[in-house]
Amino acid sequence: MRRRTVLAGVVGLASTAGCFRVLADETVLVRAKRPPEGHSADAKRHCTLAMEFVADHPPLERVTEAVADAPRNEWVTSDVDPETGQALADDLSEHCEAVGGVYHYDGASFVLEVVDDDGENEEVLFPERTQRSEAIRGVHSDRHP
């Protein structure tokens, strides 16, 4: 009987903790899309992402692999926790001298964003520089380039 009580308590705590986490956490989106035809050649800023850099950031790896097969101008998105998203945005800002523009990896060219999405507003963490403490294909509005 005691074992059932303990198991029931653990299950209850786990489910409650999960609910609080879902309600309390905001989502950060790592997203990439193939730019419109001719945009890559016209872009003033370019950044090539090294294989080692991409491999060190699994969400970035997921979207960069999926973007090559995605239709042009459709976001390929991966959701991450805020800490992972901020760390990726900071690392990208350090890695790329020219922030914004077109990014290149493994023969593909794409536009890249890391966006803090609280459900009501979006704050671009990358390519903009800010000072704040599995590839899922998603179609998002074209509010962003």
Task: Kindly provide the radius of gyration, computed on alpha-carbon positions and rounded to a whole number of angstroms.
Answer: 18 Å
Order of helices and strands: HEHEHHEHEEEE
Nearest-integer average pLDDT: 76
Return the domain count.
Answer: 1
The biggest beta sheet reads: 7 strands, mixed
Judged by helices, strands and strand pairing, the structural class is alpha+beta
* Helix-residue proportion: 25-40%
Strand runs, count: 7
Number of helices: 5
Distance between the termini: 60 Å
Tell me, briefly, the overall form. globular
Weakly predicted, low-confidence segments: 3-24, 129-145
Instruction: Tell me the strand percentage band.
Output: 15-25%
Describe the protein in words:
With 145 residues, this protein is an alpha+beta fold. It has one domain (26-137). It has five helices and seven strands. It has helices at 2-24, 39-42, 51-55, 58-67, 82-95; strands at residues 27-33, 46-48, 76-80, 102-105, 108-117, 122-126, 136-137. Strands 1, 2, 3, 4, 5, 6 and 7 form a seven-stranded mixed sheet that branches. A hairpin with a 2-residue loop joins strand 4 (102-105) and strand 5. The protein is globular, with a radius of gyration of 18 Å.
